[in-house]
Write a structure and sequence with these properties.
By secondary structure, this protein is α+β, with helices and mostly antiparallel strands. Helices cover 43% and strands 21% of the residues. The protein has four helices and three strands, in the order βααββαα. A hairpin with a 2-residue loop joins strand 2 (25-29) and strand 3 (32-37).
Length: 72
């Protein structure tokens, strides 16, 4: 488990996000845990949420309607 102070988090949010891809990151304020940062995949697994068809379609690459790549 990775632990960052609020100051460390504020100074390098990108690093916190990188750590969160691997494991949850606990953010502390005055030595006490106050927040947890985790990837959306970890959150969905933790909460039991499944990806909806709307989410899947929103992430899908566009396709050509006439079968020819690049033509709409």
């Amino acid at each position: 488990m990775k632990v960052l102070t609020s100051r460390e988090f504020n100074q390098d949010v990108s690093a916190a996000k990188r750590f969160a891809r691997i494991e949850p990151v606990f953010i502390t304020d005055r030595g006490r845990p106050t927040h947890v940062l985790m990837s959306i995949a970890s959150f969905r697994a933790f909460s039991g949420e499944r990806e909806s068809i709307v989410d899947a379609l929103a992430e899908a690459a566009p396709f050509a309607l006439d079968g020819e790549p690049g033509r709409w």
